[in-house]
Amino acid sequence: MTIDEQTVDKIAHLARLELAPDEKAEMIADMNKILGFMDKLNEVDTTGVEPLVYMTDEPNILREDVVKQVITTEEALKNAPDHDGSHFLVAKVIK
């Protein structure tokens, strides 16, 4: 499979991107390189190889959450563009 200009146009439309003609050419070349690499990977015999869920068998070592710095409400609101003294005020985004 190869990527052509129509495929790039469709992908750009779905991603809501506008590509200049030189960007389209570069994108076509990059996508074709990616597909070429995937074709190379498909040539590898993976018979009997179990899919990996994790890259390592080591357990994940998690640390406890520790509060390192606490700021007051006044300090948090100091640089806010708009606030009412105790809350950030933002523009309504739901109609």
Notable characteristics:
95 residues; mainly alpha
User: Counting H and I runs of at least 4 residues, what is the number of helices?
Assistant: 3
Helical residues, percent = 25-40%
CA-based gyration radius: 25 Å
Note the gap between the termini: 45 Å
Please report which band the strand proportion falls in: under 5%, 5-15%, 15-25%, 25-35%, 35-45% or over 45%. under 5%
Shape: flat
Give the beta-strand count. Answer: 0
- Spans of at least 5 consecutive residues whose pLDDT stays below 50 are none
Order of helices and strands: HHH
Mean pLDDT: 90
Summarize the structure.
This protein has helices at 5-14, 21-42, 73-77. By secondary structure, it is mainly α.
Characterization of this structure:
The protein is mainly α and about 100 residues long. About 40% of the residues lie in helices and about 0% in strands. The protein has three helices and no strands. It is flat, with a radius of gyration of 25 Å. The relative contact order is 0.08. The mean pLDDT is about 90.
Helix-strand blueprint:
Blueprint: H1 5-14, H2 21-42, H3 73-77
